[in-house]
Amino acid sequence: MTGRSLLVAGTTSDAGKTVVTTGICRALARRGISVAPFKAQNMSNNSMVVEGGTAGECAEIGRAQWIQAVAAGARPEPAMNPVLLKPGSDRRSHVVVMGEPAGTLEAGEFAGGRRHLARAAFDALDDLRSRYDVVVCEGAGSVAEINLRAHDYVNMGLARRAGMPTIVVGDIDRGGVFAAMAGTLALLSPGDQELVRGFVVNRFRGDVGLLRPGLDELERRTGRPVLGVLPWLRGLWLDSEDSLALGARRSGDEDDGGEADAAGAPTVAVVMLPRISNFTDVDALCLEPGVRVRYVDDPRALAGADVVVLPGTRATIGDLAWLRGRGLDTAIVEHAADGGAVLGICGGFQMLGREIRDPDGVEGSGGVAAPGLGLLDAVTEFGAGKVLRLPEGSALGAAASGYEIHHGRVTVASGAEFLGGARDGLVFGTMWHGALEGDALRSEWLREVARARGKSIATGAVGFAAARAERLDRLADLIDEHMDVDALLAMLDGGPALPTVRLALEQPR
């Protein structure tokens, strides 16, 4: 039996497709439905290691599909994100197919050079549909990117192949949501329009009654229902694929109730690298009461910070040059010299070492070597083979676990071992992403940093896994309360063809 499927598309990037897809997965799972998430192609540097690669090896998928699988109560696997594009520059992406490295893709190849990627995506969807009652598919970008439609396999190309009902999500917080929804539908071909079954308005603030005339007119003009108006919900952020979502992760005076101050708990400054990857590594710190986390791209913003975090990056040497160009390298070294703590994760750890070498051009240009910040006695050399691991161990007397995704091999000459990396005083470097999600390790690390900085912190009040589950349930509650889930389920069973919409200049009645 082939399971049913639904496409959650959007009027724009960051319209809320990921959140709506995640919420639907959770809501359906709570009804006892066997459900799996799917995204044919991600373009993201925020990824996760899962089991299920060839020969029992680990594999890599988009972080968003991983959290959607968690929401659905399904085991995350490569078929849920068969194609992952990891941008290394504005014109070149590293390709991951079914969880494994598969070369690179240049910008000029995006139109016609992806037929093999489409085949992989279609096969993966067919596989999931054979094993689950419902597959909830997330589109990419705007569903009306008509310049890419001829070779599309992520949005309406996917929907047409599978005969998949589609809902379109629009972000009203940006403004212009009615025009975006009607215009999106009008730009689609008649065959694509037939599959669009309704709209969802996302991030609404205010009285829905004031919105009703616009909703009624949208329904009259398009012949499609508005299936839900989802309110803007404070603090509802999830493991995202897109660094556009980083704004929701910022914690500060407006979020911490003033608990974090110069004499209180530590302040953490996360360097916003241009090619930042796996930025979810600091999510657990954002949830700690009293800990202020801010994202920075200017050396002056490091003033007053107790901890500087250098996160992962898909272009270590390039982002290190950017760091130097902005004077952040000097600011970080001076911060460490003044007794401040520094945490480097993966690419950030590599930057803290003595040198980074890329003899084979893994990052884009062969024969490159760059001096690091010299805060740790380590040397990195990039190689073609990618390391994908789910390591476990201990640090600071606490059990620890995480995941590794990297091409660079780090050789540590001296210093204490720390989570597959090294430490020297308050300078920590690790190749393990996600380690701070471990409650015991995070508590010990924060206590050590706070003590060294003369700060105080109460740890142990936040259980990260429980907080994530609570956010997922809040999201499912939002879907159940403000979206017509019964209509959504009926939609999965088909229905009559809907009318083709043409641009109309008539005045509203």
Automatic annotation (TrEMBL):
Biological pathway: Cofactor biosynthesis; adenosylcobalamin biosynthesis
Keyword annotations: Cobalamin biosynthesis, Glutamine amidotransferase
Name of the molecule in the record: Cobyric acid synthase
PANTHER family: COBYRIC ACID SYNTHASE (PTHR21343:SF1), DETHIOBIOTIN SYNTHETASE (PTHR21343)
HAMAP family, A to Z: CobQ
Annotated Pfam families: CbiA, GATase_3
Role noted for this protein: Catalyzes amidations at positions B, D, E, and G on adenosylcobyrinic A,C-diamide. NH(2) groups are provided by glutamine, and one molecule of ATP is hydrogenolyzed for each amidation.
Source organism of the structure: Tomitella cavernea
SUPFAM superfamilies, alphabetized: Class I glutamine amidotransferase-like (SSF52317), P-loop containing nucleoside triphosphate hydrolases (SSF52540)
The CobB/CobQ-like glutamine amidotransferase domain, residue ranges: 267-438
Domain CobQ/CobB/MinD/ParA nucleotide binding residues, every copy: 7-234
InterPro entries: Class_I_gatase-like (IPR029062), CobQ/CobB/MinD/ParA_Nub-bd_dom (IPR002586), CobQ_GATase1 (IPR033949), CobQ_N (IPR047045), CobQ_synth (IPR004459), GATase_3 (IPR011698), P-loop_NTPase (IPR027417)
Active site: C346 (nucleophile), H433
Sequence similarity: Belongs to the CobB/CobQ family. CobQ subfamily.
TM ranges: none
Gene name per UniProt: cobQ
Family annotation (NCBIfam families): cobQ, PRK00784.1
CDD domains: CobQ_N, GATase1_CobQ
